[in-house]
Design brief:
alpha/beta; 10 helices; 42% helix; binds zinc ion; Metal_Hydrolase; TatD family hydrolase; hydrolase; metal ion binding; DNA nuclease activity
Amino acid sequence: MTDPLPRQPLVDTHCHLVLLDERGLLDAALESAAEAGVEQIVSVGLNVDDSDCNRRVAESHDNVWFTVGWHPHQPHPPDAAELRALDQLLDHPRAVAVGEIGLDLFFRPGYHDTPLDEQLRAMHAMLDLADAHHKPVVVHDRDAHGEVLVAIRQHPGVRGVMHCFSGDAEFGRECVAAGYALSFSGIVTFPRSQPIQQAAAAAADGDFVVETDSPFLAPVPHRGRPNLPGYVDATAAAVARLRGVDEQLVRAQTTANARRLFGLPGRAE
Ligand SMILES: [Zn+2]
Ligand SMILES: [Zn+2]
């Protein structure tokens, strides 16, 4: 018998503190993180302005880092001036990744209607930026598994994470082979997510992290409320149950993986 591990720290590898702030939830977000043992938060940018707002949040909170992104819902790829602004933000010492970037082929009125070719131009421009800055990328993939794989394979020097991983175990293996970790969100706690749950059970110890994507996608048992970074503990617990291992082990593994991936301080062996 080995002694049970004490409570291990967590990293919320993907949330939107600026959107939480707009909803009056920034304090609640940071308090929820402290209560759940979330020691580090990666707050993710969606465009130039949002990335710059995330920079300001990171500058004023020791446990927050930020990413510089161009979300696939942006109606056009970044123009030259926007690319320069993104490039400059990436020189900031607390900028840890390029993202979110990616492809979204789920079209619905009021959600987004950016054509695939515009999304692809944006994604490739951002992958080039990540390559130039030697930063990982945070990839958004909704209903676009095949197209995303083709795109990331065209940038073999770039590593990253598949945020809100929504594929099955086989797609997970292909992403890992391309150099990408799988990031499990609250979706993995939903009853109808068996393929994603199988991917969470099958991933190797070094290949996965956890995230909230808050304020969206609250995990069971918080569904129906705005999500908060602290709720990542429910997702880590669900992943541990799926893997048949102790929750503290999964917390330790995902935290080490997140720190290695994003270059965050702390133990990351
Ligand atoms: Zn996303
Ligand atoms: Zn997001």
